[in-house]
Amino acid sequence: MIRSFLLRLFFALLLTCSIALPAISQEAIKLHNDETLSNFGKQMLLLTDTSNKLNLKAVISSEEFKAVDSDVPNLGISNFSYWLKFKVQNNTNDPHLILQIPLPTIDYVDFYQLDDQNNVVYKEFIGDRRPYYKRTFDNPFSTFKFSLDPGKTTTIYLKISGYEQLQVPTTLCESNIITAKNADSFLIFGIFAGVLVVMFTYNLFLYISTKDNTYLYYIINILFIGLLQANFQGFPFKYLWPNNVWISFHAVYILTPLAALTGLEFMKKFLHTKEFLPKLHKFSRVFYLLYFIAFILMFLGNMNVSYQLLQMAAMSVALFMLLNAVLVYGKGYRPAKFFLIAWSMFLFGLCIFVLKDYNILPYNTITYNMMPFGSALEVILLSFALADKINIFKKEKEDSQAEALRISLENEQLILQQNIELEKKVNERTLELQESYQTLEVTLSDLKEAQSQLVDSEKMAGLGQLTAGIAHEINNPINFVTSNIKPLELDILDMDSVIMMYEKLDFNEDLNPQLAKIDSFKKQIDIDFVRDEIKSLLSGISEGAKRTAEIIKSLKNFSRLDENDTKPVDLNEGLASTLVLVKNTFPDHLEVIKDFGDIPKVECLPGKINQVFMNLISNAIHAIKMKGAKDEPGILTIRSWQDGNQVKISIKDTGTGMPEEVRQKIFEPFFTTKDVGEGTGLGLSIVFRIIENHHGNIDVVTKVNQGTEFIITLPIN
C-alpha cells in the first residue's frame, strides 16, 4: 500500500516537473569588463514565424523556440520572420551596453529588452527599409544601446526579416569600446575603397591619354564594384541616400547587374572575344536576359526569387568570364594571362562569400571581407593587365618601326647599289660613245626628275583635260561661225546682184520693164528670206564670237596654275570657269545646280584652288557616269556660302558614293578606285595638300549609291 502510494507520488511529481520545465533551458550570456563577445548564436533560441503575424506577447509565451546550431545564425532566403531570444548578464561596471549586428543589409531588425516580469524596458526598430535618421546610433550597422545595471540579467528578443540572405552576426560589448571595435571594420573597407579610388583615378588618366574605350569600360566597372561593395557595408545608406528607403532596399538589385554587365563588357573588349571567341561573344547576351528577368521580378515584388536569380547570374557571369579568359589565353593572347589571374582572385573571393552565405563556411571577418579583398586584388591585377597591354602595343610599335627602318635601310642600300651600277654603265657608255655624250646627259637628267614628274602627273592630267575641254568648247563656236560663212556669202552675192541691177537702171528708157525684171529676180531669190537669213547668220556669228570670248575669259581665269603669289580671288568666278572648261565631259541629262552665295574674296593661290575645283568636279562627273542610272538624271550641285570668318564650297553629286573603307583612304597617295590607266591616285592627295597649305580643311560625306559631297572650308584673311 505504502509502496503503491510512493510510486504514484513519484510519477505525479515527475509529470508536474515535465509540465513546469521549459522545453529548452537557456543560460545568460555573461559580459565582463573590457570584454567583447562576438557571434554567440549557439547561446540563442530561434523561432520561425511562417505567418509573419506573431506579436511580442505571442512570441514570449511560445514554446516552439529551438536552439541555434551555429555561432552566426543563418536564416537563409525566405519570406518568413525570425525571432531570436537570449539573455544577457552584465558583469561589467558600465550600466550601458551595446548589441550590434554588423550586417547592414538586413531589411528589418526589431529590438526588445524585457525585465524579469517580461515587461518591455526598451525597444528600437532598425533596418535598411527604415529611414536612417531614426537610428539612435550613427553607424551603418544595426546598433542598439540599452541599459542594464551591473550584476543584473535581462532578456533580449530580436525580430529579423528580409528578402535577401539573412545572417545574424552579433557583437556585445560596453558602450565605450564600440567605436574602436567598428574602426577596425571601417579600416578594412577604407583600404579597399582607397585601392579602388587609386585605380579609378589611374585608369581614368590612361583613358584620357589613350582614348581607348577599354579603359572607359574598366573605370565604369570599378565605380559600380565600389558602390556595390560599399552597399554591403551600409555606407551609401548613411552618406548618399539616408532618407530614401526605396533606393536603400533596391540598391543591391540595381548595382549587382550594373557591376556584372560592365565587367562583362570590359572582358569582351579586353580579350577581343568578338575575334577570338565569336560564338561565346554572342552567348553573353543571355546574361542580359537573366538580369532583366531579375529586374522585372524585383518590380513585381518577388524579391526572394529575384535575389536568388541575381546570385545565380553573378556566379554564372564570373565562371563565364573565367572560361573566356582560359580559352583566349589558350589561343596565345598574352594579356589574357593577367586577366585570368585577376579574375581567379575575384572568383575565389566571390565563392568564399557565397559559401559563407550558405553556411558551408563559417561567418567571420575573413569570409565576410573576402569578396572586397578579391575585388581589390582583381582591380589591381587588371590594372597591371592593362599596363601590360600598353607595353605589348608599345613593343609592337617599336618592332614595326624597327622593321620599317630595316626595310628603309635595305631600300637605301638597293638604291645605292643601283646608282653605283648605273654610274658604272654611264661611264662605260661615255667611254664607248663620246659622240652621244650630250644626249646621254639629257637622259640622265630626265631620270633624276622622274619622281617629281610622277607627282606632277596629276597636274598634267588636269592640263590634258583642260586642253581637251578648251579644244571642244572653242571648236563648237568656230564650226558654227565657219558653217555660217558660206551661206552668208551666197546671200550677200544675191543682195549684191539686186543692188547692181538697181545701179544699172537706165532712166532714159521706160523704167517699168526694168523694175519688173528686178522684182522678178527678187522673187526668184526670195529677197525677204535672204534678208532674214543674213540677220540670222550674222546673229549666229556674233553668238559664236561671244561664246569664244567667254571661253577665252574662263581660260584666262583658270590658267593661273603657275602663279606663286597669293592674291584675293573670287572663288565663285573660279567655279564658273571650271564648269565652262569641263562642260564637254558632261553626260546626257546631267542637271547642274549652281547656288553661288555672296562671299568675300579669299587670299589664295588661284591656280592651285582652280586645280582643286577641276579635280573634284571631274571626279563628281566620273561618279555620275559610273552609276549610269537611266531612270533618273544625274545631278551636280555646287554651292558656296560664308560661315563666320570662313568660306565654304560644296561639290555634291548623285553618283555611286563610297563605302566607309574607301572613304578613309581617298586622300592617301596612289589610292584610286578607277580602272588601270584612268587615274594616277594622286588627285585627291594633291587636293588635300593644297587645301591644307591654305590652312583650310576638306570633309567628305558619302553613302553608297546615293552620292558624295566634298565640303571645302577656307579661312577669310
From TrEMBL:
EC number in record: 2.7.13.3
Positions of transmembrane segments: 186-208, 215-233, 245-266, 286-303, 309-329, 336-355, 367-387
Family annotation (InterPro entries): 7TMR_DISM_rcpt_extracell_dom1, 7TMR_DISM_rcpt_extracell_dom2, HATPase_C_sf, HATPase_dom, His_kinase_dom, HisK_dim/P_dom, HisK_dim/P_sf, Sig_transdc_His_kin-like_C
Signal peptide: 1-22
Residue ranges annotated for the Histidine kinase domain, each copy included: 469-717
Coiled-coil region: none
Catalyses which reaction(s): ATP + protein L-histidine = ADP + protein N-phospho-L-histidine
Entry-linked SMART domains: HATPase_c, HisKA
EC class of the enzyme, as a word: transferase
Keywords: Membrane, Phosphoprotein, Signal, Transmembrane, Transmembrane helix
Protein name: histidine kinase
